[in-house]
Amino acid sequence: EVDMRGRTALVTGGSRGIGAATALRLARDGADVAVTYAHGEEAAREVVRTIESTGRRGVALRADSGDAAEAAGAVERAAEALGGRLDVLVNNAGVGVLGPIETISFPDVDRVLAVNVRGVYVASRAAAGVMGRGGRIITIASCMTQRVPGPGGTLYAMSKSALIGLNKALARELGGRGITANVVHPGPIDTDMNPADGPMAEGQIGLTALGRFGSADEVASLVAYLAGEEAGYVTGAEFSVDGGHAA
Ligand code: NDP
User: Fold this and answer.
1) Which residues belong to any copy of the Ketoreductase domain (predicted)?
2) Pocket perturbation via mutation, ligand 1, pick of 15, 148, 193 by most ligand atoms within 8 A of CB
């Protein structure tokens, strides 16, 4: 358990998967938590109900991370809904389009970069405007930034790799204000995006040292550590929670 009492957090893409698990973990540790979603209103409401069952404040905000104004606005809306301040931003919302490079359409290139890169940039920028000392920006990138084990990952790996440079620059930009920025690289994690019983699962399992998929909760526990006070001297860094995928 990480002591998050009295802290407020926004998790983008918090209606399902890693984002939902992270939102619930931060709430169980004592934070009031807002989540964004693009389409899954009912799922986001259910996450809020579960947050509220822990006794914490929960807020669901519809905001498409692929729209720059909505992505930035969500940070301000979350801070306002949670009492005027935001301590933790988890940039989790992301999309993947995989396939041979010739088959990736230009609209797909624009959409993936808009959600995975520009959405993170503008949300982090907005967070910098509302965060005080002790603020935390935690960005979910991917094990595909460390090792691309086969074809089909050009667009996704490019989009996620941009977050590594952004993170280092954010750490330098915000360090003087006592705000940290870190990146988490999940390996194969059992979610709707990458189901453990999906057609690509066996190959991914074989690439891990542990021989299994990870759970969303196993990513959430690393995010919780980085969000807590004990991680106060950790910034500009990258952390893999990938079952040894990069080893
Ligand atoms: P899921 O597809 O299971 O869930 C995605 C979440 O993000 C949903 O809550 C979804 O909301 C939300 N979302 C998607 N697009 C947008 C958008 N444009 N604006 C706002 N919210 C959006 O994904 P995962 O939980 O698996 O992945 C979470 C993050 O982890 C992503 O960034 C992904 O790239 C990364 N990752 C995942 C890995 C895995 O194996 N699962 C491995 C490495 C990285 P809605 O319900 O409304 O669609």
Assistant:
1) 7-192
2) 193
ipTM over 0.95: yes
Q: Is 198 a domain residue? A: no
**Is there a catalytic annotation at residue 156?**
yes
Q: Is 193 part of any domain? A: no
Q: Output the six-digit token pair for 218.
A: 């196993």
CA 123/CA 2 separation, integer angstroms: 24
Instruction: Name the pTM for this structure.
Output: 0.99
Atom of ligand 1 nearest to the CA of 144: 43
Domain membership of residue 15 as a residue range: 8-184+216-233
In this prediction, residue 169 carries a pLDDT of: 98
- Into how many domains does the chain fold? 1
Residues 6+ apart with CB under 8 A from 94: 13, 115, 116, 140, 142, 159, 160
Best of 11, 15, 18, 77 to mutate for ligand 1, by most ligand atoms within 8 A of CB? 18
